[in-house]
Amino acid sequence: MSTAADNAPYIIAGWAAVAGGIGAYVAVLVRRGRALSAQVPADRRRWSTTPAEGSVR
Amino acid sequence: MTAPATSDAELAPAPAAGADGGPRGTGSTATRALGAVVLAGAAALAGLGLFGTPEDVVQGALVRLLYIHPQAATTAYIGCFLTTVGSGVYLWRRSVWWDLVALASAEIGALFTALALITGSLWGRPAWGTYWVWDARLTSTAMLMLLLLGYLALRKLPGDTDVRARQAAVLGLLLLPNVILVRQSVVWWRTLHQLPTLDVTGTNISGLQLFTMMLGFAVFAVLFVWLLMHRFRVAWLERQRDEVLVDEAIRARVAEGSGR
Prior knowledge:
The structure holds two protein chains of two kinds.
Chain A: H1 4-39
Chain B: H1 29-52, H2 69-93, H3 96-128, H4 136-156, H5 161-172, H6 175-188, E1 198-199, E2 202-203, H7 207-258
Antiparallel strand pairs in B: 1-2
Helix pairs in contact in B: 1-7, 2-3, 2-5, 2-7, 3-4, 3-7, 4-5, 4-6
């Protein structure tokens, strides 16, 4: 029977793949959002209001 | 006065002001709160999953993959389910909102399908002696991955946005039947992959192991919602940017014509 030490690389690789994959996707998503919001006028951002309109919901 | 009321109140970010007074990025009070829940949940899941739970009598330490692998697969199923629903509603009502929900869900679904395949392969090597085998569950999951990649590739093709959305929606309808095929593959065909650990008829685990597994499902579910909100907003901004570019091009052409 294999020991915990034998299986450790597979377990670590599995958890690292999940954390790394999700972390990388989150980083790309947040950066894309920031870059895009700079290219779209505030009044065309569906959830936003203009400064004159004050705060949103 | 606020922006027009929408059916997606939960998708509304707070005004973390940018240079023009509008929100910067896709974050909001709701996503920040959800993000904090995900981080706390993920820390607890990692602590319990990697150190706090006992080893399994049969699987040994490999049981620690039970706290991420089925969760990744289930989150992928949720993404596919929502893509099919969004596609159906788009075809029925031509709702841009649902089209973007379908697109966002498909991309997140593809991410989690890939993670399910990777963690599954890493589990298969020590458990079965191989990273890959043409087992019914693995093969049907690979088919699902290809379908998702095809859907996302179709969305990126140049051309009319509405035509592209309609074509993608037709493809999106195929995702849910494929998920049912993946889910039932271990029941319909006796193959190498084990039967579901959790089933309506009962569970094969208990105590802290069961708690950690359920915690994993909860953390991944909240993470899915968080990702969906951000990805939806990115898709919305992309659409708005394209419309801005078209408007500017039309204005430039009109100005050019009137200047002659």
